[in-house]
Amino acid sequence: MAVEQEMADVHPPEAEDISEFLPETDCGNCGYTSCLEFAEAVLEEETNPHKCPDLDREFADVFAVIVEMNKDPIPYNLMMEQVPCELIEINGPDKDSPVLITCNFQETVRIMKEILEATSTEAFLLPTHTHGYSVDNAVHETMFKAMEIWKAIKDNAVEARVERPTMIIPGLAEKERNSIRQLTRWEVVVGPVSGFLLPLFILNNK
């Protein structure tokens, strides 16, 4: 008998999360009665983001790329594989580009790189030592630590690479915000729970 392989969720975006990036006017000009219904239809690929007349072209283009990306779960046998905690430059970032904090689980880093590269998002991606735990597991196991983030910033001389000491942490790590801010003395912005929405989050906060 074949043994079914266990899989780990990659936190794909949900309609409620996406609707926060929409005008939320429920104007109906897209052909749907509400922005939430439109978001659900986009995720089901029944329509596309360009049908919303209130979204600018760049935002709609990025949204469309995100919808088409692979969001399949990750096999559990890949869990705990680590990557070095080295600063990764995505799409030629400059001093005004955001610093994105993540874990050092290789599949999380791979997926984040794919998302940012596919959406042409300029950013610094900084894996921090979580013993190979994914972000959700690292938070649960108290392995998503302010000290490791501070160490990764110092080891990679990140402060010299950016104009403002501001980082974006995963939404799953929101409860760690204050401890990270107090130790690093950086401004800490809490990003979306789904990493797939980071490009929209960054565009929305330019």
Describe this structure in words.
The chain is an alpha/beta fold and 206 residues long. Helices cover 34% and strands 12% of the residues. It has a five-stranded mixed beta sheet, with helices on both faces. Strands 1-2 form a two-stranded antiparallel ribbon. Helix 6 crosses helix 7.
List the SSEs and their pairings.
Layout: E1 7-8, H1 15-19, H2 35-43, H3 57-68, E2 74-75, E3 88-90, E4 99-102, H4 106-118, E5 123-127, H5 135-140, H6 146-155, E6 166-169, H7 177-184, E7 187-190, H8 198-204
Parallel strand pairs: 4-5, 4-6, 6-7
Antiparallel strand pairs: 1-2, 3-5
Helix pairs in contact: 6-7
Any descriptors?
206 residues, alpha/beta, 3-methyladenine DNA Glycosylase II, Chain A, domain 3, Rossmann fold
Q: Please give the CATH class of the largest domain.
A: Alpha Beta
User: What is the correct CATH architecture of the largest domain?
Assistant: 3-Layer(aba) Sandwich
The beta-strand count equals 7
Q: What is the global morphology?
A: globular
Strand order of the largest sheet: 3-5-4-6-7
H and E string: EHHHEEEHEHHEHEH
Largest sheet: 5 strands, mixed
Distance between the termini: 53 Å
Structural class: alpha/beta
Annotation field: number of helices: 8
Q: Average the pLDDT over all residues and give the rounded result.
A: 93
- The residue ranges in which pLDDT falls below 50 over 5 or more consecutive positions are 1-5
Helix content: 25-40%
Approximate strand percentage:
5-15%
When the domains are counted, the total is 2
Radius of gyration: 18 Å
The CATH topology of the largest domain is what? Rossmann fold
